[in-house]
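WARN retry 2 of 3 for item q-0093 after timeout on previous attempt; input resubmitted unchanged.
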Amino acid sequence: MAKLTSWVDVSGDSDFSIYNIPFGIFSNNSTTPRVGTAIGDQILDLAAVAKLGHFDDLNMDKNVFSRPVLNDFIALGKPATKRVRKRIQKLLSDKKSPLIEKPRIFIPRQKGKMHMPVSVGDYTDFYSSIEHATNVGKMFRDPENALLPNWRHIPVGYHGRASSIVIDGTPIYRPKGQVLPKGADDPQFKATERLDFELEMGFIIGKNSQLGTPVTTDRAEDYIFGLVLFNDWSARDIQKWEYIPLGPFLGKNFASAVSPWVVTLEALEEFKVYGPKQTPKVLPYLRFKGPKNYNLHLEVAIKPQGGKETIISRSNFKYMYWNMCQQLAHHTCNGCDVKVGDIMASGTISGNEATSFGSMLELAWAGTRPLTLDDGSTRIFVNDNDTVTLRGYGEKNGTRVGFGKVSNKIKPAR
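OK item q-0093 returned
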C-alpha cells in the first residue's frame, strides 16, 4: 500500500485514517441528511465537495451525495465509487488541496448526527463461526457431537427482519414473548430474562443480481460494497421456546444494530488472510481461491448505568469458518437475487479462548459462569440500563482502518 499522509489532523490510533475513507449519512443543525466521509475527528461533507466541482470529471450523478441513504451512490458501481474514494484521498493528502481553504465543509464528528447508512431491503444472518456453533452445540445438544451434520457442508443462515435494524446510539427496549420457565409445562408471556448481544460483522450488497442467476465465489467481491459492525440482539429464552421447527423469530427480530460508517472492501484489502482449513472439502460451488478472511480486531464492552465500561470480549473476524464469498455464493446458488443495500451478517464471531467468545450465552456459559465486571457487579446476560458497545479495526505496518463503534443502551420492557 502506498504511503499516504493527510493535512487533516489524524491521531495515530484513529479508526478513520487517510487509508480508510468510509461512507456514511450525517446531518447537523444546518444540513439535511447527506453523504459524508470520516477523516480523523472530522466529517467531510461530500455533497458540498460535489457542489465545488471536485467530482465533475468523474462522469457521475453528483446528486447522489445529497441523498439521505447511500443506496444510489453504491448503485453507481465499484468503478465509480472507487474513483470517488481515490479522489477524496487525493484531496485530503495534497498539501495544496483546494479544500484547505474551505473549512466549513468539515464538521466535527461529535457535532454530527449519524443516520442509517443504507435503506435495507432484505437482511440475512449466518451462523458461520465454528467455535460459536460448537459452544452452542455443547450447551444444548451433545458435548461429544456438538455440530449438526450439515454444519461443515453449508453456510447455515436464516432470513431476518430488515425493518428493525437500527443505528448506533438507538435505545433497545427489552422484548417480550413466550418463554417456558424451567420445570414448567406451559409457557408464559413475559419480558426476556436472557437478553444477549452477538458480536458480528455485516456486509452490504453493492450490486443487484438477477433472479435465477447465482453469484459465484470468484465474483462475490464485486457484489460486496463494504462492511459494518453488527450487533444481532437476541432473547435467548424466547428463542429457545420458539426455534423448533422453523428457527429464530421473535427472539431475534426485535432489533439488530449497525455502526454508521461503511468501510469499503478496498480499504480492507491490506488485512486479508486465509481462514481455517475446511474439512471435509466443500462442494465445488463453495470453493474459492486466495485469502478471503480479514484480520480485524473486535471487542465488546458493557457499561452499567453511571459506571465505567468493562471490555468483556476480544475476538477477530479472521476466525470465521465460512467467509463472505461463500456466504453470498450459497445464498444465491438457488437463484435468489440480491439488491443494493441488502445486509448479510456473519453470525456470532467467537475464537478458541473463553475471552474471545462473541455472546453472553458463551461468556457466562448459559448462565452457569457469571461474568464479573470491573465494578464488581456480575452478569449472566445483559441488564436493563446496560450499554453494550462493539468496536473493530484492522492494523498492519502502521496502517489502521476501523469502524468506530455500535453502542446501544437497554431500556426496560414497554
